[in-house]
Amino acid sequence: MVNPLLPRLAGTFIPVRDIEKARDWYCRLFGLPLDTPILFDHLCPLPVEGPGIILDTMPMWGGKEPQGAATYQTPALMFPTSDLEAAYNYMKELGVELVTEIEHNHWFVFKDPDGNLLMICKEQSPE
């Protein structure tokens, strides 16, 4: 049997409760256009490099429930930075809820407004 799967990540979904509020928050966080379109009233593909980031209220997966779809309770996504200290201070200036301090001079965890745990890591230089 031939394996039809491609060994790469095409994108990832982030569960959110309010698609417009989430879009605005993530766009401000990453310096993206605030008019990034929302599709089908529940999806917002962010214009980022690499595998896509798609904000989604996930109506089929708990998004119609009062509490919304389940959030990431462990850091499932890692965003790179070349300057970890500057990234940490930037998040503090934005008022982002920081879950950890900078750990091992390599990473820290923060929460988005929906309570998803996300990570920022120091980008490794190629050796």
From TrEMBL:
It comes from the Bacteria. InterPro entries: Glyas_Bleomycin-R_OHBP_Dase, Glyas_Fos-R_dOase_dom, VOC_core. It comes from Paenibacillus sedimenti. Pfam families: Glyoxalase. Transmembrane segments: none annotated. This is VOC family protein. Signal peptide: none annotated. Residues 8-123 form the VOC domain.
